[in-house]
Amino acid sequence: MNKKSPREAADWVRNIIHDFINQSPENNLGNNPPEKAFAEPLVGFSRGDDSIFEAYREHVGPFHLTPLEIFKGTFPGGGVSSRDLTVISWVLPQTEATKRDNRRETRYPAERWARARIFGEEVNKKLRQHVETRLLDAGHEAVAPSLSPLWERKKSERFGFASTWSERHAAFASGLGTFGLCDGLITPRGKAMRVGSVVARIEIEPTPRPYQDHHAYCLFFTEEICGKCMPRCPADAITEEGHDKVKCREYIQGLREYVKTQYKFEGYGCGLCQTKVPCESKIPAAKDVED
Predict the structure, then answer these.
(1) Contact (CB, 8 A) for 87 and 196
(2) What pLDDT shows up at residue 1?
(3) I want to staple 277 with a disulfide (CB 3.0 to 4.6 A). Which of 137, 194, 228, 246 is the partner?
(4) Rounded CA separation 13/7 (Å)
(5) Long-range CB contacts (< 8 A, 24+ apart) of 158-165?
(6) In the prediction, which pLDDT does 281 show?
(7) pLDDT tens by residue, 205-239
(8) 111-162 pLDDT per residue, tens
(9) CA 36, 275, 248: angle at the middle one, nearest 5?
């Protein structure tokens, strides 16, 4: 394609993502008749040479890969540097119907939520592949880290469950949100969402990060109020000390039989801490916390 300016390239990539979510029949919950899995997405960008990616390695563990390592592991040679790379991140908000259903639940995931966890993540996977392919077809080397053989689950000495690439941390770096008490990412569309990313050799200006602290949007940390996600957790995995990943994972995995019996497909999910909370669909303000 003709060389685009950084702004034109950003608009082009945004349109690829928006068109897929808004127009593709692939965006569905796997039900009949098909319903959309996700609402209007958010898109952000960060530079491959942003120092935050080195900070992640120091924070999470030496196994955590930088954009350059992901890229060079996919496209060895070629003399590329980290400043040549852009991390493209997106937020896929849950639909109003999915959030509404899950608000009503106190122990198990609503069917739409469980579908969004399984079939919705398949949508996210296809979006990653679609963005990667469109970039490659236009002459831009690109890789979706979560689809790469370099992606692995790891154990962090500091945080327990971890991986070689984090979609939420890529989104944080790309100005799309900050972390809450339950470890969920609070975005301008709220915490009820999924995230994805692609690393590409393309010049796009980074999205400004309108925050300094990684908890900037969580009222529990900024105002010492809220904590509404704690009583929403049926596993008691969220306390004032934070999120117990082991308890959370064990509880969610234990829901497979419920989903299979009640909803007639193989799956799991929970998401109760992401719904019926002030940060469900937006960045919350103190007035959003009920007495």
Answers:
(1) no
(2) 45
(3) 228
(4) 10
(5) 158/59, 158/60, 158/61, 159/60, 159/245, 160/245, 160/246, 161/245, 161/246, 161/249, 162/60, 162/61, 162/63, 162/64, 164/63, 164/64, 164/65, 165/64, 165/65, 165/70, 165/197
(6) 98
(7) 999 999 999 999 999 999 999 999 999 999 999 99
(8) 999 999 999 999 999 999 999 999 999 999 999 999 999 999 988 777 777 8
(9) 105
User: What pLDDT was estimated at residue 155?
Assistant: 81
pTM of the model: 0.96
Contact 113, 57 (CB under 8 A): no
Task: Supply the pLDDT for residue 102.
Answer: 98
Q: Could you state, in order of their start, the residue ranges of all structural domains in the chain? A: 6-282
Matching residue, tokens 């996919």: 74
Q: How far apart are CA 56 and CA 40, in angstroms?
A: 29
- The two tokens of residue 258 are 């419920």
Q: What is the mean pLDDT of residues 179-201?
A: 98
Using an 8 Å Cβ cutoff, are 256 and 291 in contact? Answer: no
